[in-house]
Design a protein that fits this description.
binds zinc ion, TIM Barrel, ten-stranded parallel beta sheet, Urease, subunit C, domain 1
């Protein structure tokens, strides 16, 4: 990581995303990685001053559901529905990942995320090699909650990815001890059974207990696809959400990705337990999974964040795309004003931080918070003129408009140049590691 210096962001258009929704033209002082002062700040000598008069300054994006292990598989699994996508393409590819290809995949994904203004993610790994992902997160400077995925149900999981219940739990506990709260809390662990379909009840119950014993989050997929919930109902004679609830997978320390097909009182269960939801509109559309009842969630004050999911079901890790779709795809059903662009920017920033239980530290520009901040050009031809700043960010701004990305006061990208990752080498390694991986599958 680059050396942390005190920084004065001078004269930007600051979109704070605080509770009051304050927006002002002014300065942001960052000392020791935290926001120490906001407003009009006089001459200071002890910090580096950056002219931001042509920039929008806002909190970095928080992706609540990502799979860095899949970035290498971008374009390898187009035009399939979830279970075919998993069984025919993603699981065979994942089962042939080795440490080098895992590293290439994670680094490529992290580079893409930083270039698009993401400062924090929640990541779900594959079954093996998760240390490599944490090493890449550590080196890159990105804030992350992550964990290996857990899969021990032999009837549905392919041999190459199947683990025993005890191995899965043992590996998870080892990773927690190694990585949870490293880098002064920038890296945290989320215990992550892949989904109910791939896990025994013993694994789910013990995983939930383990997470709570160590103060980790819980992260899984839920009710993404109708085939998935039918498999659970057939096996357990319970609806998917009630099944997950029975084994501990609801609550304020839980993120459920997708939550599209919720019936009966399943939505109420999410509300009553204050469970977090990761809404991933690109992935839900591309895998033809469906459209989550997002407006119902927002009306009922469910904590909702956005996420890109994995590169092969998107095919980008781009928060601007997720914001645009989250704002648009619900309009035909609920009405043009059912979700405002401000609500969408909230989900992409402070809302995501709330889902990951880190909103007291990041997610908005407020004094005392860690400086996870991005700068976006406010002079692009495709965004001007504007009437409303949130509308501009959701409907007009692009990934390439992000000029800098900063985590805890350190620039991870400045003037669109990555500071912790060699971009060219990363792309080259991804291409060559994918070629080797496909050779391993064929041999
Ligand atoms: Zn996913």
């Amino acid at each position: 990581m680059s050396v942390r210096e005190n920084i004065l962001l001078r004269n930007g258009l600051v979109v704070t995303m605080n509770q009051e929704g304050d927006i002002f033209r002014g300065d942001v002082l960052i000392e020791e990685g935290r926001i120490s002062k906001l407003g009009k700040i006089g001459k200071t000598s002890s910090c580096r001053e950056i002219d931001c008069s042509n920039l929008i300054i806002m909190p970095g994006f928080v992706h609540t559901h990502i799979h860095l292990c899949q970035t290498l598989f971008r374009g390898q699994a187009d035009d399939l529905t979830l279970m075919d996508w998993l069984r025919r393409r993603i699981w065979p590819l994942e089962s042939h990942l080795d440490p080098a290809s895992m590293r290439a995949s994670a680094r490529l994904g992290i580079a893409e995320l930083i270039k698009g203004g993401t400062t924090a993610i929640q990541d779900m790994g594959s079954v093996r090699h998760y240390d490599v992902v944490f090493e890449e997160l550590q080196h890159s400077g990105l804030r992350a909650v992550g964990g290996k995925c857990m899969m021990d149900y032999s009837e549905t999981v392919p041999k190459g990815l199947l683990e025993t219940t005890s191995d899965s739990l043992r590996q998870t506990e080892r990773l927690i001890k190694m990585w949870h709260n490293r880098e002064d809390g920038r890296l945290r662990y989320a215990v992550a059974p892949r989904f109910a379909v791939s896990c025994t009840t013993e694994l789910l119950r013990d995983a939930a207990d383990m997470a709570r014993e160590h103060g980790c989050l819980l992260h899984t997929h839920a009710s993404e696809n109708r085939d998935e919930i039918a498999l659970v109902e057939k096996r357990e004679r319970l609806s998917n959400l009630h099944f997950l609830h029975k084994y501990g997978f609801t609550g304020e320390d839980v993120t459920l990705a997708h939550c599209i097909w919720l019936g009966g009182n399943e939505k109420q269960l999410i509300v009553d337990t204050n469970t977090g939801v990761a809404h991933c509109p690109s992935s839900n559309l591309k895998l033809a999974s469906g459209i989550a009842p997002l407006v119902d969630y927002l009306i009922r004050d469910v904590r909702v964040g956005l996420g890109a999911d994995g590169a092969p079901c998107n095919n980008n890790l781009d928060m601007f795309m997720e914001m645009r779709l989250a704002a648009m795809i619900h309009k035909p059903r609920y009405g043009a004003d059912a979700i405002t662009s401000e609500q969408v920017v909230r989900m992409a920033t402070i809302g995501g931080a709330e889902v990951l239980n880190m909103a007291d530290e990041v997610g908005s520009i407020e004094t005392g918070k860690k400086a996870d901040i991005i700068g976006i050009t406010d002079e692009a031809v495709h965004t001007q003129p504007r009437r409303d700043i949130y509308g501009q960010l959701v409907y007009a701004t692009h990934y390439h408009d992000v000029q800098f990305t900063m985590v805890e006061g350190s620039f991870l990208m400045e003037k669109r140049e990555l500071t912790t990752i060699d971009e060219q080498a990363t792309v080259a390694a991804a291409t060559s590691e994918l070629r080797k991986l496909i050779d391993r599958i064929r041999s």
